[in-house]
């Protein structure tokens, strides 16, 4: 039988002490039982994104980001694969049928890149039969949203090529939107 699970992060510790909100949860919607409780170690204030990356009718990737600048993927096997199991059959622990991968690590930045929103999947490349997915998201300082002089406010578009490699700042390509003349209209504050 299919199991419908709602995933969510533990929340935000406004003191930035990472004392609360440090777990990823998955709750069986039929029974209300937590079937996933995975310690990440830092706050998970943003939402979680489920993706059916191979269009088979089942969500096989779960994406989320944390307050310390990491972007995560849980890759679940196809429902017909031998390693696929009913989520209710296992104990609530870290022994999930899905594989956790930190796909991007922003912890090398001079400023903590806190991510408060869910990553948005975007089909980026198509090879004729499958998509390579990208994730779009921003970082910022929730406690001081009006600050324009911090190193916190960035927007990212990160490819997920489906491997287990954790990428970092050195893998980014910086794009200055002012160089994109005639590509789209963009109005900035004060300009």
SSE run: EEEEEEEEEEE
How many helices? The count is: 0
Q: What ranges have pLDDT less than 50 throughout 5 or more consecutive residues?
A: 86-95
**Beta content:** 25-35%
The whole-number mean of residue pLDDT values reads 78
What is the number of strand segments? 11
Shape: globular
Biggest sheet: strands, sense, closure? 5 strands, mixed
Helix content: under 10%
Radius of gyration, in angstroms, nearest whole number: 18 Å
Question: Brief overview, please?
Answer:
This protein is mainly beta and 191 residues long. The chain has strands spanning 5-9, 23-28, 34-39, 49-51, 61-65, 70-75, 99-105, 120-126, 131-139, 154-160, 167-168.
Please give a structural write-up.
The protein has about 190 residues and is mainly beta. Helices cover about 0% and strands about 35% of the residues. It contains no helices and eleven strands. The protein has a five-stranded mixed beta sheet, with no helix packed on it. Strands 1-2-3 form a three-stranded antiparallel beta sheet, with no helix packed on it. Strands 8-9-10 form a three-stranded antiparallel beta sheet, with no helix packed on it. A hairpin with a 4-residue loop joins β5 (about 60-65) and β6.
Give the SSE layout.
Elements: E1 5-9, E2 23-28, E3 34-39, E4 49-51, E5 61-65, E6 70-75, E7 99-105, E8 120-126, E9 131-139, E10 154-160, E11 167-168
Parallel strand pairs: 7-11
Antiparallel strand pairs: 1-2, 2-3, 4-5, 5-6, 6-7, 8-9, 9-10
Keywords:
191 residues; 0% helix
